[in-house]
UniProtKB/TrEMBL annotation:
Protein family membership: Belongs to the TonB-dependent receptor family.
PROSITE patterns, alphabetized: PROKAR_LIPOPROTEIN, TONB_DEPENDENT_REC_3
Residues making up the signal peptide according to the UniProt record: 1-27
Protein name: TonB-dependent receptor
Positions of the TonB-dependent receptor-like beta-barrel domain: 430-951
SUPFAM superfamilies the record matches: Porins
Bilayer disposition of the protein: Multi-pass membrane protein
Localization in the cell: Cell outer membrane
Length: 988
């Protein structure tokens, strides 16, 4: 089965089996999108246990919040049978753009590699607040987003996904919503999980070991729970060069866009042409002469020259161009040196987590508790094989490594050097990036109840301190200046071959032969790739103190008014240290024995590595805030049914940007119609600038801009911007809920429309974009540059310029019924969940641009795009008995486009423009996946289970790029193929 085919009849039958898209996902007696209205108290506790209502701080019994919330319980997690709970959550339709171990594997310096972070609505993880038991968690990189892989997972009893703004309840970052992991605080007994699996290609072998214990002491007044977890997902090794695909994956075809110069599009032909078997003609596997009279000469075994086979029947022109090809791509030809397919598909990831919680009832009404969590996540991957040099090398003809025949040809043609490009495939080892994140988090708290003013009140207070230490080590990385010196060799009179540059030779340079398939000299490789490669050490710290009170201070005509109020103080800080070769020498990063001084290296600004140039930075801010929330019953027990009004407000004071307010106003109406409920909520939400945006690592490089018709040389000064203001959002939702009407017992469904408008979005511009905005009259941007003094500069930093608007609707539902009428045991549950993104407009605020439409863009080729398809759906059919379970599930991504701004045409095309380019084919197919899982209760203590994901082994859809991308979009598509897992669960 291939994902490019539209859903077949069997697909449509599966959708029909789920009650035709109107049904949604949750399996509880509560309505979809709503938490159970009256969950039981935790066994063994005399303290009033909080009612978990993640989208609100009201915990009154019977309270129904207006904000849509999807709940995933322990049974759902077990059926997903994933080595990492993150992977199960990321499949939910509302979660779009989440990062995991299959994303950012082509990146060395992004800082998000191996980071499992959740994103709602495609608004990126920085606008989704992820909590544990309603508490903030220390971020796992400088943007402040958390790493779900560091969370304890075996003791998670439910995950609540709030698909609406929640800043008034929980504070900054909850623009897209909240994901709250709720632990089983009163677990008693012992349980364990053992799991193993691999893909259809016998790679990404994984195994998971988890164990948890809980018990009571002191006649049930004290309770202790603890868990340990270890899992390893082995990853998919790089197949290196040629785009062959790893371990027999045949789907990779080197997709790319050929892009014609915009000035040539007056011929009626499109500017963009999607192609497969793209050949970058500016380098070859073991070297290619890319310009001059010898252009088209490649080198093979032992450096023997041969005529390079260009695709598209191309012929080199001697000017660097190739007839029949569009820079930098031909189609077909010699593809042995292509590098796009050599990116790791899935990282090798190891998780180690330990968690414990202890509580003690001081009195029947007051409890103190602590939790401690340790999580370490170790990832490894290859961003690209070799270290390709794209037509940017100069080889002297007298270089002794140049074959004699080429030296003679140089003389014949009267040249002394030639341009050269290579994949550097003779490098013995590929680049390996190894991010390691280690979290330690301690929480001390108390909760309970008390009487005041004749009313019963509950309180919850906690203080937490967390630290995340992040080390990114990169191996087998070359230093640019040493590489350039090593390949420029000369033969001395005594026959010795040395580096031509005397300064380099005096500082230890060893010549390196990169012409042809020849073994690399280990000494030369040690010189250009020192053992101590790029390194970044970061430390994030977070301290929080929070206090909240809940109660019902008075009653109105329709019942008691519930109130919650509280305050919170938080401090965030970080520092980052890069190695001296990447950062440059400073007081914070002096030369060390591991990174000795080298006259070839730039000691002022660093940036010496081929990739992975990390820079020093540090910063901190603190926050003080208070909130107040009411739930007011409007009417009850009337022919109109019952309704409530939920209103909340929060004032937040940031040390960097001052005060900002967020609020929420919502209502639910349980109508007089059997099972029918309406809900609506609108809110003002905020996201404060994170530490990276406020205190980005300073860096100064030279650049040029066009100003008043002239090219001006400037200093490009990259810094953070402490004047950034919080982003503000208006989040509105209206929904209809049908909960088990008498005419359809076991059936529940909901439809919710959402509209999210975000203003003042923080984004970074290029120097030229800043100059254009200044010329257009933006005084804030003008203050960041000086183009008239002797020292001209443009400060590149983030500004509150962009805006976003995302609107659509969610469909959720469940239908459960007994199979006794069919003579079968147990129950059948049909579920479905789908998100329809109507529009996702992104306005950069840059002069000369228009808002871009990201909805339905299935290729990740622009910021924020590539993660919000028009439709994303998840469906399942589950047969459950006391002895076994069998679940068939489907995941669906609708067809999309490469860009909504492209104009599709094959002939008679209008002249292409920067805003609306023309393209030959703007269609990108979606995908439909089948999953199968089941379990068998062997005994009361032992359950065996299996899971097969991507049952029909659907290949990922090609995602063309304009450069050296790896041609897939892992934010949307399954890139690993069919996966098998089996395991056993113990419970005592």
């Amino acid at each position: 089965m291939h994902p490019s085919r539209r859903p077949t009849l069997i697909h449509l039958a599966a959708l029909a089996a789920c009650a035709g898209l109107a049904l949604g996902a949750r399996a509880q007696t509560a309505a979809p999108g709503q938490p159970a209205s009256d969950p039981p108290q935790e066994v063994g506790s005399n303290v009033l246990s909080p009612v978990v209502v993640t989208g609100s701080r009201i915990n009154a019994r019977g309270f129904t919040q207006p904000t849509p919330t999807t709940r995933i319980d322990a049974v759902d997690m077990e059926k997903a049978a994933k080595p990492n709970l993150f992977n199960a959550l990321a499949e939910l339709p509302a979660l779009q753009g989440s990062t995991g171990r299959t994303t950012s594997t082509n990146s060395t310096s992004s800082g998000i590699q191996g980071l499992s972070s959740l994103s709602l609505r495609g608004l990126t993880p920085i606008r989704t607040l992820t909590l544990i038991d309603g508490q903030r968690v220390i971020g796992a990189n400088v943007t402040g987003v958390t790493d779900v892989s560091q969370f304890p997972q075996l003791l998670i009893k439910q995950v609540d996904v709030v698909t609406g703004g929640a800043s008034a309840s929980y504070g900054s970052d909850a623009v897209g919503g909240v994901v709250n992991f709720v632990t089983d605080k009163r677990f008693t007994g012992f349980k364990a999980n053992v799991e193993a699996g691999e893909t259809n290609y016998h790679d990404d072998r994984n195994h998971t070991l988890q164990a948890a214990w809980g018990g009571g002491f002191l006649d049930g007044r004290a309770h202790l729970t603890a868990s340990v977890e270890y899992s390893r997902e082995g990853g998919v090794p790089s197949p290196r060069f040629g785009g062959a695909g790893a371990n027999g994956r045949t789907w990779f075809k080197n997709p790319a866009f050929q892009v014609r110069p915009i000035g040539q599009t007056n011929d009626g032909k499109p500017q963009y042409i999607p192609i497969e078997n793209a050949q970058q003609f500016q380098y070859a596997k073991y070297g290619l002469i890319t310009n001059g009279p010898l252009q088209g000469t490649a080198f093979g075994k032992d450096g023997v020259p041969f005529k390079f086979v260009y695709g598209s029947n191309g012929v080199p022109t001697g000017t660097g161009a190739v007839t029949g090809c569009i820079t930098p791509f031909c189609v077909g030809g010699d593809l042995s040196g292509t590098v796009g397919g050599g990116t790791t598909l899935g990282m090798n990831m190891t998780r180690q987590v330990a968690y414990t919680r202890g509580s003690l009832e001081l009195t029947p009404d007051h409890e103190v508790f602590f939790t401690f969590n340790y999580g370490r996540v170790d990832s490894r991957f290859t961003p690209n094989p070799g270290a390709f040099k794209n037509d940017n090398l100069t080889i002297q003809c007298d270089n002794p490594f140049v074959p004699a025949s080429i030296q003679a040809a140089c003389a014949t043609n009267g040249i002394t050097s030639f341009k050269f490009g290579t994949s550097n495939a003779n490098f013995p080892k590929d680049i390996e990036v190894n991010p390691v994140r280690t979290q330690a988090r301690l929480v001390l708290g108390a909760n309970g109840r008390f009487d005041a003013f004749g009313k019963d009140w509950t309180y919850d207070a906690y203080a937490t301190h967390g630290q995340n230490t992040i080390d990114i080590n990169v191996a087998n990385m070359s230093l640019n200046s040493r590489y350039n010196a090593a390949i420029d060799a000369v033969r001395l009179a005594d026959g010795r071959i040395v580096c031509r540059n005397p300064v380099a030779a005096a500082s230890g340079c060893v010549p390196l032969n990169v012409i042809g398939d020849v073994p690399a000299d280990p000494a030369a490789m040690s010189y250009i790739e020192p053992a101590n490669g790029p390194h970044q050490h970061s430390r994030q710290r977070q301290s929080v103190a929070s206090f909240s009170v809940n109660g019902e201070p008075f009653s109105l005509w329709a019942g008691p008014v519930a109130m919650a109020f509280g305050a919170e103080a938080r401090r965030e800080q970080y520092y980052v240290t890069g190695d001296p070769y990447g950062n440059g020498v400073s007081a914070d990063s002096p030369n060390t024995p591991e990174y000795p001084a080298d006259p070839l290296l730039n000691t002022a600004i660093g940036n010496n590595w081929y990739a992975g140039n990390y820079h020093n930075a540090r910063g901190s801010y603190h926050v003080k805030e208070g909130f107040l929330e009411f739930n007011v019953p409007l009417f009850k027990g009337t022919p109109l049914g019952e309704a409530n009004l939920n209103v909340a407000g929060r004032h937040t004071s940031y040390s960097t940007s001052g005060g900002v307010d967020s609020w929420k106003l919502g209502s639910t109406w349980k109508t007089g119609v059997d099972g029918l409920r309406l809900r609506a909520v609108t809110s003002r939400d905020v996201r404060a600038p994170n530490l990276s945006e406020l205190y980005a690592a300073p860096l100064v490089v030279n650049n040029t801009v066009n100003y008043q018709g002239s090219t001006v040389t400037i200093q490009q000064r990259t810094i953070g911007n402490t004047n950034l203001r919080p982003e503000t959002a208006r989040n509105s939702t209206f929904g209809v809920v049908l909960t088990q009407p008498s005419w359809a017992p076991g059936f529940s469904a909901s439809v919710d429309y959402f509209d999210i408008k975000v203003k003042g979005v923080i984004s970074t511009l290029t120097p030229q974009q800043e100059v254009d905005l200044c010329v257009a009259g933006n005084q804030e941007i003008c203050a960041a540059m000086d183009l008239t003094s002797a020292t001209k500069y443009v400060t590149v930093q983030a500004f509150n310029l962009a805006s976003m608007r995302n609107k659509g609707f969610d469909l959720e539902g469940v239908y459960r019924f007994d199979l006794g009428g069919a003579g079968l045991p147990g129950k059948l549950t049909l579920r479905a969940l789908a998100t329809r993104t109507i529009s996702f407009l992104i306005d950069s605020g840059v002069v000369g641009t228009i808002p871009t439409e990201a909805a339905g863009v299935n290729v990740a080729n622009v910021p924020n795009a590539g993660s919000t398809p028009r439709w994303k759906g998840q469906f399942s059919q589950s047969w459950d008995t006391d002895k076994f379970n069998l679940t068939l599930a489907q995941r669906w991504i609708s067809d999309g486009v490469y860009s909504n701004e492209y104009i599709e045409c094959q002939s008679n095309c209008a002249v292409s423009t920067a805003i609306h380019p023309t393209i030959a084919n703007n269609q990108m197919k979606g995908a439909f996946y089948w999953d199968l899982g089941g379990s068998y209760k062997y005994s009361k203590n032992l359950t065996l289970y299996f899971k097969i994901d991507n049952l029909t082994n659907v290949d990922p859809v090609a995602a063309p790029q304009t450069g050296t991308g790896y041609g897939i979009n892992p934010f949307l598509y399954d890139v690993l193929g069919r996966q098998y897992r089996m395991g056993a669960r113990l419970l005592f």
